[in-house]
Specification:
The structure is a single chain. About 35% of the residues lie in helices and about 20% in strands. It has helices spanning about 10-15, 20-25, 30-40, 45-60, 65-70, 80-85, 90-110, 120-125, 130-145, 200-210, 225-235, 320-330; strands at about 75-80, 115-120, 155-165, 165-175, 175-180, 195-200, 245-250, 270-280, 305-310, 330. A four-stranded mixed beta sheet has the order 1-2-6-5, sandwiched between helices. It has a three-stranded antiparallel beta sheet with strand order 3-4-10. A hairpin with a 2-residue loop joins strand 3 and strand 4. Helix 3 runs antiparallel to helix 4 (about 45-60). The termini are far apart.
Length: about 325
C-alpha cells in the first residue's frame, strides 16, 4: 500500500502524477464554476485574479463569513500558476510565505481576516481526486506551514490584531477547497480553478466588525454576532447530492449544556442547540481523506454524522481554551 505522504517529491513531480477524472469529462462543471475558472486562466495578473475570485466567493461561497470578506476586499490571495507549480519548490514556498506576510500585516491593522492560497491549474481542475491529488494537497499545505502535514490532521496558523491599547492573537484553521468538489457530495468545499487552502479568523473578523459597527455592550468582542451568523449559515445550507452537509440540532435532540447566550434568542434560533451541530465532515480538518475518494455520493462507510462545536464563540470556561484562542483572542505583548 502506498503511503499518503508526498515525502520528498517536488510539487512538479506530484503534478505529473495527476490523471484526468473520467466523471468530470462526461459531466463537466456547474456554469458558475466553469465561467470563473475560464476567467482565472485567462487573467494576466494576480490582482485581476483576485478580483475575479472575490466576485465568485461573494456570490457562491457557502460560508457567510467568506462572502463578507470577499465583498469588502478582505481576502489576501496567493495564486500559484503552472509556471510556479512546474518549477522548483523553493520559489513556490517563498511566494506563499511572502503573501502570508502581506496577509498578517493587513490583519494587524484590522483590514483583512482571510487568506486564500490557490494552486491555479487546468491540470489540477480536471484531475481525479485520488491519492496523487491528496499528496499534492499535502505538499502544498506543508510548504505553507513549513512543517509536514498528514491527512486528517487539524493544522492552524496564527493571526494578530493591534489597536489602541491592545494586541491580540488568534489561532486560525487551515481548510482545503477544490474544483473536485463541484458536483460531488462535499460541494460546500468547491472552488474554481484548481485546489486551495482557506484561512479565515472568525474571531478577528468579529472584533473588526464591532470596531466599525455598533453592537450591544453585552457583546464587546462581536462574538454573539458571529454565533448568530454561524448558526444561521449552518441552518440554511443548500442540500447537495447526499443531502445537507451541516444542520443545527433541535434542543430536544441534543440538550444544550450551557445557558443560552442570546437574550432574547433570535426568533429563528429559539429552539436550536447553540453548543453542537451536525456535520457530514469535520470542518476543522486541513486535508480530509474523504475528499480524495472519487465517489460522487457520500460513502456509507463514513458513518452518519460528526458532532461539531459552537462553544468557541460563547463559552468562556477554564476547560474551553478554544473560546479564548479561536473566538475571543488572547491578549499578548509579543
Amino acid at each position: 500500500m502506498q503511503p499518503d505522504s508526498a515525502g520528498e517529491q517536488s510539487v512538479s513531480l506530484l503534478m505529473d502524477d495527476l490523471v484526468d477524472d473520467p466523471w468530470r469529462v462526461t459531466h463537466g462543471f456547474t456554469p458558475e464554476v466553469q465561467r470563473c475558472s475560464d476567467k482565472l486562466f485567462c487573467a494576466a495578473s494576480d490582482e485581476r485574479r483576485g478580483d475575479i475570485l472575490s466576485e465568485w466567493l461573494a456570490q457562491h461561497q457557502p460560508c457567510i463569513f467568506g462572502k463578507m470578506a470577499a465583498r469588502k476586499g478582505g481576502v489576501e490571495f496567493c495564486f500559484l500558476t503552472d509556471d510556479d507549480l512546474l518549477g522548483s519548490d523553493l520559489p513556490v514556498q517563498r511566494k506563499i510565505l511572502s503573501c502570508r506576510r502581506a496577509w498578517r500585516e493587513t490583519a494587524l491593522r484590522g483590514e483583512r481576516s482571510a487568506f486564500v492560497i490557490v494552486a491555479l491549474s487546468e491540470r489540477i481542475t480536471v484531475a481525479l481526486p485520488n491519492l496523487a491529488a491528496k499528496r499534492l494537497a499535502l505538499k502544498l499545505a506543508s510548504l505553507y506551514l513549513c512543517a509536514q502535514v498528514q491527512p486528517d490532521e487539524v493544522k492552524q496558523d496564527a493571526l494578530f490584531l493591534e489597536a489602541a491599547g491592545f494586541r491580540r492573537r488568534w489561532r486560525v484553521g487551515v481548510n482545503y477547497f477544490s474544483s473536485h468538489g463541484d458536483g460531488r457530495w462535499w460541494k460546500d468545499h468547491r472552488i474554481p480553478g484548481g485546489m486551495a487552502f482557506s484561512m479565515n479568523s472568525v474571531g478577528h473578523m468579529a472584533l473588526c466588525q464591532r470596531a466599525i459597527k455598533k453592537y450591544d455592550d453585552s457583546d464587546p468582542r462581536g462574538l454573539l454576532w458571529a454565533l448568530q451568523v454561524a448558526m444561521q449559515l449552518i441552518d440554511d445550507t443548500t442540500p447537495g447530492i447526499s443531502g445537507r452537509n451541516t444542520r443545527l440540532f433541535e434542543l430536544s435532540e441534543v440538550a444544550a449544556t450551557l445557558r443560552c447566550p442570546f437574550s432574547p434568542p433570535p426568533r429563528n434560533l429559539q429552539t436550536k442547540n447553540f453548543c453542537v451541530y451536525e456535520g457530514q465532515y469535520h470542518t476543522d480538518v486541513t486535508v480530509p481523506s474523504e475528499y480524495f475518494d472519487p465517489c460522487i455520493e457520500r460513502p456509507a462507510s463514513l458513518g452518519l454524522r460528526t458532532d461539531l462545536d459552537l462553544t468557541y464563540l460563547h463559552n468562556d470556561a477554564p476547560d474551553n481554551p478554544d473560546y479564548r484562542e479561536i473566538g475571543a483572542g488572547v491578549d499578548t505583548e509579543n
